[in-house]
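Ops channel
N.P.: pipeline sanity check, posting one input/output pair.
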């Protein structure tokens, strides 16, 4: 553990103007506050914040960050408060400490909710000052180094999983690859102990057998480059166990089949020498097509710059090579932290594009599961490059589609998407993008994100935005149904109801506004009688529970203009279409389910609030289901398809439900206009020699 004077000397080495007195106060404060607390390892608790501060000095971070590292656990684990920190160390340090500190008073929450709320607070603080993330990464790295001292295996697994899913990818996103690799290695050891041990044993065996082969290959490369007049540094290493295990999992191969276990790094004097070195390597050894990546001309979003290539050394050995300058190497290993040196005036504010995306996700996520899911997606590591027609570059996770690209460009563009051109060709929105694709998004007017997009989008930003838009539309349409029901309820009270009575009712029901009341009515979270009583207190006292006076006025509620699947659900049991006589079942928290009046399920005594519904004038479009029995002979299925085509109807699904020679029965879901359309189709089917029977299912 660093002593007080050693820590201060480290900071003074790269920042002679640092406030030595503040650093000394912070060191003493954390020692005093943590007092006799100990860690699972038995070490004094204050050794942890001191070690985290040491990690921050390795990154040459400013004095406020060092003080934050020393104080980051005092508010969470001692009696100290944020106000105490601000009084003793200033508002900047207090703000940073608050950002790193987990939320208190949420211990009664389920584990996933607690994790999500702490993550939400952390991400918001990180968006205001990226130093919050740097301290948090140092905190997590030191905790992972001492994780084996925790006795509870479930807790070790949970911390390791959180590190692998959240913190290692965050380290990668800000270019701190050294932190990322060590976190992944330590988490992998906990999550897959058998695989970790097996791969390490294999690597030990290779080291014993290769007889210094890594050094020999590095020396060959250095000689080849020196003969061409390039002075470089060459170092080699084996890939770490997690990297090998991940490659085995992705390629579905065994350890023996992973041929590129060795990786070499070449450090040049300048950028031009990087490309010269690449040319020399490619002319000296055979390179593997498709494995070359130029991150110098096209850096990663985290600022990473390097040339990557793979060579065949000797007869069959595949090796990976990274070529970069010394400045690139410093940035690549420590990323954003490398820009926080004390002498740089133009320090980054953390408001980079991917971080803004995370904040959008925080705003859009509805519950803890969504937040955790979307955040993991947003910081996913494996990425591809795609371009707009004007050449703007966007990096996306592998598997991303045109819709993911649209949301990456802008949330509004994603919501307005109706089509896409990929490399100049019209392609389906679910088409997965490849490296280098040029994507043109086609916009529409008055368009909205579709729920079906959730079946193929992969980015957290897109999923969060789609779910939020669907939720808002659903809430608006349920509130619209609720407003119609409210108007009907208002006719049953013994007074004329105006805006004033509505405002008073909202207050009595302790709701925020009219919309909340309408939504509660539409979603069956409040009964008619309660609404009547709120409008005119005492008006229901003389009514019995079954009194027809307040049950319903008999006026039907129109669902015209509302969206099936959003404002209401069309029942799967009877598949109502416009023109059918319909009723609605209003279920708490589920909205309205629409049935035909003769649906057999309505006769089963379902205990829900019934609504008299109507389609409204000119309502068009629904999915109708037919049950068609064909003669079991060649050509009858084609005849049925021809009838559908002549009647201008799309087939949504076709399923064979019964084979009883000489008959075959199918259930067919059709996109129809209305009841008259269904009737015409049935008449045409019944007139066909290929059809034995046709009816609505």
């Amino acid at each position: 553990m660093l002593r007080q004077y050693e820590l201060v000397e480290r900071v003074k080495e790269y920042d002679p103007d640092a406030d030595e007195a503040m650093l000394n106060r912070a060191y003493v404060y954390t020692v005093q506050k943590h007092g006799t607390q100990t860690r699972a390892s038995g070490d004094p608790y204050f050794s942890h914040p001191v070690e985290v501060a040491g990690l921050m000095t390795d990154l040459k971070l400013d004095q406020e960050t060092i003080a934050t590292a020393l104080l980051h656990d005092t508010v969470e684990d001692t009696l100290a408060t944020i106000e105490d920190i601000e009084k003793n160390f200033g508002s900047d340090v207090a703000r940073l400490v608050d950002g790193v500190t987990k939320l208190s008073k949420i211990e009664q929450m389920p584990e996933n909710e607690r994790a999500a709320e702490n993550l939400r607070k952390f991400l918001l603080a990180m968006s205001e000052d990226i130093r919050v993330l740097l301290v948090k990464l140092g905190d997590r790295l030191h905790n992972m180094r001492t994780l084996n001292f925790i006795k509870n295996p479930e807790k070790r697994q949970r911390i390791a999983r959180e590190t692998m899913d959240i913190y290692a990818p965050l380290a990668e996103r800000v270019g701190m690859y050294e932190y990322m690799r060590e976190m992944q290695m330590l988490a992998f050891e906990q999550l897959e102990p058998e695989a970790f041990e097996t791969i390490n044993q294999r690597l030990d065996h290779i080291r014993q057998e290769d007889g210094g082969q890594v050094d020999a290959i590095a020396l060959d490369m250095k000689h080849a480059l020196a003969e061409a007049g390039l002075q470089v540094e060459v170092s080699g290493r084996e890939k770490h166990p997690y990297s090998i295990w991940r490659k085995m999992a992705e390629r579905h191969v065994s350890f023996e089949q992973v041929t590129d276990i060795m990786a070499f790094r070449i450090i040049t004097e300048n950028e031009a020498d990087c490309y010269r070195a690449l040319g020399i390597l490619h002319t000296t050894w055979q390179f593997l097509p498709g494995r070359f990546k130029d991150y110098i001309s096209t850096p990663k979003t985290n600022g990473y710059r390097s040339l990557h290539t793979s060579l065949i050394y000797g007869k069959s050995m595949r090796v990976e090579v990274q070529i970069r300058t010394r400045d690139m190497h410093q940035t690549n290993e420590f990323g954003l932290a490398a820009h926080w040196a004390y002498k740089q005036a133009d320090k980054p504010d953390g408001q980079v594009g991917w971080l803004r995306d995370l904040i959008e996700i925080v705003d859009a996520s509805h519950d803890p599961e969504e937040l955790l899911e979307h955040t993991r997606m947003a910081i996913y590591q494996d990425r591809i490059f795609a371009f707009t027609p004007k050449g703007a570059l966007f990096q996306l996770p592998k598997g991303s589609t045109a819709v993911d690209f649209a949301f990456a460009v802008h949330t509004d563009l994603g919501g307005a998407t109706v089509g896409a051109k990929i490399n100049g060709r019209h392609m389906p929105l679910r088409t997965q993008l490849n490296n280098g694709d040029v994507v043109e998004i086609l916009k529409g007017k008055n368009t909205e994100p579709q729920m079906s997009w959730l079946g193929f989008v992969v980015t957290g930003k897109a999923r969060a935005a789609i779910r939020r838009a669907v939720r808002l539309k659903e809430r608006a349409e349920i509130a619209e149904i609720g407003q119609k029901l409210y108007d009907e309820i208002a006719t049953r009270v013994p007074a004329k109801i105006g805006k004033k009575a509505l405002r008073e009712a909202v207050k009595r029901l302790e709701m925020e506004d009219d919309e909340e009341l309408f939504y509660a009515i539409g979603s069956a979270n409040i009964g008619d009688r309660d609404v009547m009583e709120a409008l005119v207190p005492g008006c229901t006292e003389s009514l019995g529970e079954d009194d027809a006076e307040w049950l319903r006025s008999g006026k039907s509620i129109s669902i015209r203009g509302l969206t099936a699947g959003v404002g209401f659900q069309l029942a799967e049991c009877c598949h109502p279409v416009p023109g059918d006589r319909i009723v609605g079942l209003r279920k708490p928290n589920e909205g309205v389910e629409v049935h035909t009046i003769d649906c057999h399920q309505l006769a089963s005594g379902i205990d829900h609030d019934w609504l008299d519904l109507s389609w409204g004038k000119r309502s068009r479009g629904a999915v109708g289901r037919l049950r068609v029995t064909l003669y079991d002979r060649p050509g009858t299925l084609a005849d049925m398809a021809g009838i559908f085509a002549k009647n201008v109807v799309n087939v949504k699904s076709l399923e064979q439900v019964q084979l009883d020679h000489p008959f075959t029965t199918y259930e067919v879901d059709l996109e129809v206009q209305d009841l008259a359309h269904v009737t015409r189709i049935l008449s045409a089917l019944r007139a066909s020699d290929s059809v034995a029977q046709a009816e609505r299912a």
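N.P.: looks fine end to end. The chain is about 45% helix and 15% strand.
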